[in-house]
Specification:
heterodimer, A: 446 residues, mainly beta, Methylamine Dehydrogenase, Chain H, four-stranded antiparallel sheet, B: 194 residues, GMP Synthetase, Chain A, domain 3, three-stranded mixed sheet, MIP18 (chain B), FSCA_dom_sf (chain B), MIP18-like (chain B)
Chain lengths: 446, 194
């Protein structure tokens, strides 16, 4: 492996929590993040100046384990939080961080004011009542620790999961009264459900569990049910993320040895193939591996089902054939010596970051395998990710940051849009969250 | 605990157990009577040596070895007997290993402490609690650069894999630490720790 991205520490988020922090959720549009802490609070930091903006307290009686921002909100931010106290909290706040402290909260990066320029005691007092985080509602239903929460792409549905082995889907009725309706409770997992993650555009939910499986869930004629159960990991599945759905932003794997015309031909072919199977899923596990999963294209799958009845289910029971076949697309190069707690697939660059108990951040890149290269590698390389006779990709470990948080375990990593003054537009930063309460922001440059 | 799972466990003689703490305690209990007349009249306080502070500092700088790990956990009490895990041979010195966590990173300070637990009987449902006690004791006593790997010794328990999976699960251990009832049991087990 020859690392060819540079991971550079940009800043810590300050002041840090004094206790373990579990996860940091970047806001979908604003340059802010929410960090979940064992001290029962959620800290909202600015990615513009890396300082603490608000601390949300008083809602949870135990560690806050997870948080997710509701997408497509404008003028107001909505945050869902999940806690070891078995509840899910919904919090709301009018968007005004930028206006009040001059930190440039809009997504334009031309605001050159320093954070301390305009914030003063007056504005702080004014925002006290109407402009702080408002506790909206507590979603009660799980029997034990809530491990993960996720909003669907539309923002209509919230999925939550717990050590009680269940996944709940709630519908945000958006009736101005903070009412949520329980849409489904799924109990097929045989162990703690560690993570839930919605498909980037469809109403399809993925979950990972202590039972070592990944399951996919869809609604079929008003009933939510399991459409796939992926067995492959040899340990708890700690985290899941989806490939980006937006082809505009990312053109697929890079290739270093092709002419431009060859490259575009490959990309076109690769993209049409990807369009058939849809976004892939990535998972990380206690078994130290990171794996990519691909859905078999619907067309071929249905043909297979009709010809050989591979599902074993009489078609009269499931006339629409919602079952999906998922197959392993790749095992990423070995990079971790201890459980891998988080993986993040950049929607902008396609880079994948993983982290875990070994305190290491690893960056991977997917590349096309050209025919010449393949001959050289012959049968030696197990990383090849063949799903087609024509086009193959491989994942390459392109960067390692050892001891990213010193001696501490890292619980989470996420990509976010860069928003500090030194940035130039579409760059991304990586945000890592560790056991000592520290949250660090990194740049990853090719 | 209404009924004991193992009412007649095999118990080792405390004096036969390996320890670095022994000189202090044994001198007092075994030889104290014989040498009393020969000792100076000024009372010798073995419990709190005058230089304990500086000694503690020195200890932190010294590398931590298997014996030190053993001394930390052998004095934990069994949840159903007022007997230490060392005396019950639930933990033993040869079943403790310290290894570099990242062998491919020579300058990494991370070390993994492996402790293999031998339950007194193969179906002991308290194995998880004992393992949790050992893990909590180590987490509270050792610097953060140590990674804990507390497991049931292979072949000594009917549901060893299940117990091991729970003990290795960071999230479950963290949640257990916030569970008052469970921590009450663990605290009781640790009352006998030095």
């Amino acid at each position: 492996m020859s690392p060819n991205v540079t991971i550079t520490h940009l800043s810590d988020l300050t002041p840090p929590s004094q206790e373990r922090t579990w996860l940091t959720a970047p806001h979908p549009t604003l340059p802010i993040v929410a960090t979940c802490s064992s001290d029962k609070t959620i800290r909202v930091y600015s990615l513009t100046n890396f300082t603490l903006l608000s601390t949300i307290t008083g809602g949870h009686k135990r560690s806050v384990r997870t948080a997710a921002w509701k997408p497509h909100m404008s003028g107001e931010s909505v945050l869902a939080t999940g806690s070891f106290d078995a509840t899910v909290g919904i919090w709301r706040r009018w968007d005004n961080y930028g206006r009040e402290d001059g930190a440039g909260m809009g997504m334009t990066n031309d605001n050159n004011q320093t954070p301390t320029d305009t914030s003063d005691a007056d504005s702080a007092d004014r925002e006290e009542d109407e402009e702080e985080w408002r506790f909206a509602v507590l979603l009660d239903g799980h029997d034990s620790e809530v491990k993960s929460v996720s909003w669907s792409a539309s923002g209509m549905l919230l999925a939550t999961c717990s050590r009680d082995k269940s996944i709940w889907i709630w519908e945000d009725l958006d009736d101005g009264d903070n009412n949520f309706e329980t849409v489904a409770v799924m109990q097929e997992h045989s162990g703690d459900v560690k993570c839930v993650s919605w498909h980037p555009s469809e109403e399809c939910l993925a979950s990972g569990s202590y039972d070592d499986t990944i399951r996919l869930w869809r609604e079929d004629l008003d009933d939510w049910g399991q459409v796939a159960c992926i067995k492959g990991h040899g340990g708890t599945v700690w985290f899941l993320d989806w490939e980006g759905d937006d082809a505009e932003k990312w053109n697929g794997p890079i290739s270093d040895s092709n002419s431009e015309s060859e490259l575009s031909a490959l990309q076109a072919q690769w993209r049409s193939q990807r369009a058939l199977s849809g976004p892939r899923l990535i998972s990380c596990s206690d078994d130290r591996t990171v794996r990519v999963w691909r859905r078999q294209p619907k067309e071929s799958q249905q043909m297979g089902a009709f010809s050989s009845a591979t599902t074993g289910i009489p078609s009269i029971i499931r006339p629409t054939g919602t079952d999906e076949a998922w197959e392993e697309d790749a095992v990423l190069p070995h990079a971790h010596e201890l459980p891998v707690y988080a993986v993040a697939w950049s929607k902008r660059t396609g880079l994948v970051a993983s982290t875990g108990a070994d305190g290491r951040i690893a960056i991977y890149e997917e590349r096309f395998v050209t025919p010449e290269k393949e001959e050289k590698q012959d049968d030696a390389d197990a990383m090849d990710t063949a799903s087609s006779d024509v086009l193959r990709t491989e994942w390459v470990l392109v960067g390692i940051q050892d001891g990213a948080h010193g001696i501490y375990e890292i619980n989470h990593v996420a990509w976010a849009k860069r928003a500090d003054r030194g940035s130039g537009g579409e760059e991304e930063v990586l945000v890592s969250t560790a056991d000592d309460g520290s949250v660090k922001v990194w740049t990853v440059t090719r | 605990m209404a009924e004991m799972q193992n009412s007649n466990p095999t118990i080792l003689n405390a004096a036969d157990l390996p320890t670095r703490l022994r000189p202090t305690t044994t001198r007092k209990s075994e030889y104290g009577g014989i040498f009393t007349s020969a000792l100076p009249l000024a009372p010798v306080d073995f419990e709190s040596p005058p230089s304990s502070d500086s000694e503690d500092d020195n200890l932190l700088e010294e590398p931590i070895d298997e014996q030190e790990i053993y001394d930390l956990i052998s004095s934990i009490s069994d949840p159903e007997h007022p007997i230490s895990l060392g005396e019950l041979a639930v933990v033993s010195l040869p079943d403790i290993m310290i290894k570099p966590t990242l062998p491919d990173v020579p300058d990494s300070p991370l070390q993994t402490v492996t402790v293999l637990i031998t339950p007194t009987i193969t179906h002991c449902s308290l194995a998880t609690v004992i393992g949790l006690g050992v893990r909590v004791r180590l987490e509270q006593s050792l610097p953060s650069r140590f990674r804990m790997d507390v497991r049931i010794k292979e072949g000594t328990h009917s549901t060893g894999d299940e117990v091991n999976k729970q003990l290795a699960d960071k999230e479950r251990v963290a949640a257990a630490l916030e569970n008052g009832a469970l921590m009450g049991v663990i605290a009781k087990m640790m009352e006998t720790c030095h």
